[in-house]
Amino acid sequence: MGVFFTMRLSILIPVYNQDCTKLVADLLDQCNKTDIDFEILVMDDGSTNRQTLQTNRKIANWEHCTLHEFGHNQGRSCIRNRLVKESTGEYLLMIDSDAIVERKDFIQNYLDCLQPNTVICGGILHPENLKCANQRLRYMYEKKCESKFTAACRNQSPYQNLRTFNMLIPRRVALAHPFNENIQNYGYEDTLIGKELEQDNIQVLHIDNPLINGDIEDSHIFLKKTEESLRTLKQHESEIRGYSSLIQVYDKLRSLHLVWFVSLAYHLLNIPIRQLLLSRWPIFHVFQFYKLGYYCTL
Q1: Which of 94, 171, 222, 237 is the most exposed place for a label (fewest CB within 10 A)?
Q2: CATH 3.90.550.10 in the chain, residues?
Q3: Is-contact 174 81, C-beta < 8 A?
Q4: Cβ pair 146, 138 in contact under 8 A
């Protein structure tokens, strides 16, 4: 059921070395076709690419749009908290800057589902075709997982499946549940928000209103980011326990006194596994073992 009173929507987009002009233009076009009052806030988190900076500065000249630039990197959690504080809408639509709007009714779908005190997650899809061979690892992983991330599947564990890549949240809820700025590195800030929302009995609703992830990383970069996220998970293990399937497997191994065995297997097979994952034919279950093995060694 949609909201029938006058409201203001704030679209919040953090950006780092990413041309987001197409994304903003598409969102602007869709918002202009509705009756809502809205703003689009873009915050550049210390981008180092001058060409990207210059391109994104066009956004500042567009109606309903505001661009903020920071001279140094604030971090993923900090920049999102700044966006929330700067916003003026009753509802906030958080979108990553590498998103691609595919649906012509993307904004309207969210408006039709608005409910007070409810967080709504639209979901994420990935391109149908791989652009570069050196992106095979991330592409393989995401496409394998995609079938588990329909709205029906996500609603079975709504808080564990929360992702801020494409999420609408009441502003007062966002202010009450800021991103954890103690997470300095990549990964799991979404998970902690989901945990807090469940503890505070805030409803999370998943719908099929996806954005396309337009930035599939090179396999080397993706492996590095995966390892960084696992270090973040280890650092916040006690807080995230119960919200991570990997921690569940790790705890099971620990109860069976098998962590040492997985760690040993990882050390022995680390090099050939990495070579396989970075090859033209990475294997999903090998990647899953790699993550578990890496985590067991931390």
Answers
A1: 237
A2: 8-216
A3: no
A4: no
